[in-house]
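TL;DR need structure tokens for one chain.
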Amino acid sequence: MRVLPPFATDTLTQLETDTALAPSSWALALAQPAFRLRALLVVVLLVAVVGLALPPFFAYVQQRPGQLLADPLLGLLPCRQVAVPIFVLMYGACVAGLGWLGRHPTLLLRGLWAYLLLTVLRLATIWLVPLAPPLDLVDMPDPFTTLVMQAPPTAAITHDLFFSGHTATVVLLALAVRGRWWRTALALAALAIGVLVLVQRVHYSCDVLAAPFFAWLAYWAAGFVAGRDAAQA
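>> reply
TL;DR here they are.
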């Protein structure tokens, strides 16, 4: 049995004590009034936009006529029901990404602001670019949208086309996390989702191709709103 010298034991004990007494990253963040204010504000705005603005907005666009697009890329892809893998990838990425961000409050704050801005951007583009879904669309009722809309489980929103929210959300998570492995995994998930929503025919290829740009734009803009620490993290 190997016995550590007394000075090594004392050093380990001191390190354990310092670690136990060190304030957590959340304690340090919440000790800052600016962080608390920005966190409270983004939560209130998210509840207002997602809980109050989305239902009437989606109800309106679902009844609004839109333009059909000729999309040669869709013709190269099979048309299949792939909702299950889309939702597994989408919500799995959200759980994993938010789990990582939960340990980094400043990055989480920027991510929440970015998601708010992304949602506002998406509402604006859907409003400005009225599209009709592809004729061979395969219905894909989204559990989250169904919950927000308080609609039957079989109801599907099909006119929220430009740009792809599923793809953009996972791209946003890939931008928000740190580390090559995390970013690569989330980027690959976003790529897979982008292909699958085309196979499902719930989007045109332009919807998917535009999603990463809007995700980057929202994350970049969030750096100015979430504070200097979040922007530099």
